[in-house]
Write a structure and sequence with these properties.
alpha/beta; Rossmann fold; Alpha-Beta Plaits; 8-stranded mixed β-barrel; 21 helices; 19% strand; elongated; binds ligand C2E; binds magnesium ion
């Protein structure tokens, strides 16, 4: 400690009050003169009693104590003073004529600080006195520093406790809405589950809420408005839940509620209904009037659940079901819902492998000239040759493939196989055949699509005009800008385009006009009513006249009956496709079909 050195070095000790106790008047006088001359304040005592009295009243900084005194000896006095906490710190230097080791040892034993033998040398007394006083000063400084340190530690501890509380707040509360956050929610859910496991009468439920189309609000009105909306929704929800329940923001536009101690499921349904009606009222955020709805999944807590995460997962599944069924409603979780999700997950894992191992085959369905009966081309339709489940139809796996983005990889495999097959046919002499290939919505935004098509065209040496890409009307509308760009690039190469499932996607005529498309494919739902009666033609004649005006040709999809065929012929629909002619076939069977066709 630097402070101690500082005192040792200083000339003037801090403490100056000295009591000299000695029954020899001679000694007293001598020492008094000596110490006073050095600037010390000196008090004197000539007996043990006097010494004790003087210490009590004067509280000296140091005592020079003679061992041999008539009433009480120095050792006894020292013992007494050292027993008393008040006088304990006063350093005592013994003065003695006894130059005996045992006496010195005893002096230190009873608490003496030092020992001077009479007759003393003046310099020795001064040095020893001074040393003790400096030491005392240093000790006091240490005490003070210690006390300061202690207060600082206390202050810091208080600050840390406060900071900790703040961290705790951050850790369990959502900063935007002030509601509990996901981790607090999970903690509480775990407690509810544990309680249900030991108390069979305890019943709880979990509600999983998701704001419908919140993304649209966020994207179109901005994040500030989105945040404001979430705050207001949170406030509304708060007015509905009881104090014993827990309302939390689980993230984004998702909220969770734990209803504790409810008598039955009815209660949870009641609250869900109340939430749905309350949230339906318009919200006013930054001068916008916003209408939102929520979809809610409900799960009844059960001790059979192993983990709280599983309860939340099921509530989430039920919420998605509610969204599927049209949003703004609630659904109660049932195990079949889990199975559906589980199956989809399995398909997803399997699909990843399938893309890697190219487990896809292309089937071909002929497109026929309705006037001549000749095959003009084939639509390429993908099938998944699953190692265990056999042939799987597109509707079973394409939705998952689209959701996961795997569709792009699958799409390229299809284009590759279909183009290779067509080049084989053309080499065999079936020159005029065209191939119709479906493009999924996501492929319209696939960065390397055109590049891949170029590569395949080079590899197969096909005339680009014998390829017709099918884009469904709905995906075209959803991706107007990217579709336009893509179509332009494809047109530059001479590749043809066709609108699939036409009539189901609400495109306007003006939009249609801006797309340089060669073909419209009438969705098969429009053919269902063609039963030979002229009253039931529905939209088919309208679509045919639109196509004629726009100089497009038309393929009618899903022709299954002779009646449909003859009516389409009467309406001068040029091309058709359907089970009446042939189901989709594998490459070899399609080859046979071509050979049997009157054209060749
Ligand atoms: P799509 O492009 O409209 O294809 C026509 C669908 O109608 C095919 O179903 C075909 O088998 C079926 N079909 C043809 N004629 C008849 C008929 O007379 N009656 C009935 N009931 N159905 C008929 P598929 O092969 O199951 O394909 C379903 C959909 O999957 C296709 O509809 C298409 O949107 C999509 N798809 C198929 N292959 C691909 C592909 O390689 N890529 C992409 N992106 N989508 C594909
Ligand atoms: Mg198609
Ligand atoms: Mg179609």
């Amino acid at each position: 400690m630097p402070e101690i050195n500082q005192y040792l070095a200083s000339e003037e000790p801090l403490f100056r009050d000295i009591l000299i106790a000695d029954d020899s008047i001679e000694n007293l006088r001598l020492l008094s003169i000596l110490l006073t001359a050095q600037g010390y304040t000196v008090h004197q005592a000539t007996s043990g009693q006097m010494t004790l009295k003087a210490v009590e009243t004067l509280a000296p900084d140091l005592i020079l104590l003679d061992i041999m005194m008539p009433d009480i000896n120095g050792y006894e006095i020292c013992k007494k003073l050292k027993k008393n906490p008040q006088t304990y710190p006063i350093p005592i230097i013994f003065l003695s004529g006894l130059d005996n080791v045992l006496d010195k040892v005893k002096a230190f034993d009873v608490g003496g600080a030092d020992y001077i033998i009479k007759p003393f040398e003046i310099e020795e007394v001064l040095v020893r006195v001074r040393n003790q006083l400096v030491f005392k000063a240093a000790q006091q400084e240490i005490c003070q520093l210690n006390a300061q340190l202690e207060t600082r530690v206390k202050e810091r501890t208080q600050q840390l406790i406060a900071a900790n509380k703040q961290l705790e707040q951050i850790a369990i509360y959502d900063s935007l809405t002030g509601l509990a956050n996901r981790s607090k929610f999970m903690e509480q859910l775990e407690q509810s589950l544990s309680r249900a496991k030991i108390d069979s009468t305890y019943q709880f439920a979990v509600l999983f809420l998701d704001c419908d189309r919140f993304k649209i609000v966020n994207d179109s009105l901005g994040h500030l408005v989105g945040d404001e909306l979430l705050k207001q929704v949170a406030n509304q929800l708060q007015t509905i839940v009881q104090e014993t329940d827990l309302l939390a923001r689980l993230g984004g536009d998702e909220f969770g509620i734990i209803l504790s101690a409810i008598p039955a499921l009815d209660q949870a349904m009641e609250i869900a209904k109340q939430i749905i009606t309350t949230v339906q009222e318009p919200f006013y955020c930054n001068s916008y009037e916003i209408i939102v709805s929520v979809s809610i999944g409900i799960v009844l807590g059960s001790p059979d659940y192993e983990q709280p995460e599983h309860i939340l997962r099921d509530a989430d599944t039920a919420m998605y079901r509610a969204k599927d069924l049209g949003r703004g409603q609630y659904q109660i979780f049932t195990p079949t819902m889990y199975k559906t999700v589980h199956d989809l997950l399995k398909i997803e894992t399997d699909l990843h492998r399938a893309v890697k191992q190219k487990e896809f085959v292309v089937y071909y369905q002929p497109i026929v000239n309705l006037g001549t009966g000749k095959i003009v081309g084939f639509e390429a339709l993908v099938r998944w040759l699953h190692p265990q489940q056999g042939l799987i139809l597109p509707e079973e796996f394409l939705p998952v493939a689209e959701e996961t983005g795997l569709i792009c990889g699958i799409g390229i495999l299809v284009i590759e196989q279909a183009c290779y097959q067509l080049s084989q046919w053309q080499k065999q002499g079936f020159k005029p055949l065209k191939i119709y290939i479906n493009l999924a919505a996501q492929q319209l935004n696939q960065a390397n699509l055109v590049e891949e098509i170029d590569r395949i065209l080079t590899e197969t040496q096909l005339d680009p005009a014998s390829i017709k890409l099918e884009i469904t009307e709905s995906s075209m509308i959803r991706n107007l800008q990217s579709t336009k760009l893509l179509i332009q690039e494809l047109r530059e190469r001479g590749i043809q385009l066709s609108i699939d499932d036409f009539g189901t996607g609400y495109s306007s005529l003006s939009q249609l006009q801006t797309f340089p498309v060669n073909t419209l494919k009438i969705d098969r739902c429009f053919l269902r009513n063609l039963d030979g009666q002229t009253d039931n033609l529905g939209l088919v004649p309208v679509i045919l006249s639109i196509a004629r005006v726009m100089n497009m040709d038309v393929v009618a999809e899903g022709i299954e009956t002779i009646e449909q065929l003859s009516q389409l012929r009467e309406l001068s629909c040029h091309f058709g496709q359907g089970f009446l002619f042939s189901e989709p076939l594998n490459g070899e069977d399609a080859n046979q079909l071509i050979l049997q066709n009157p054209q060749w």
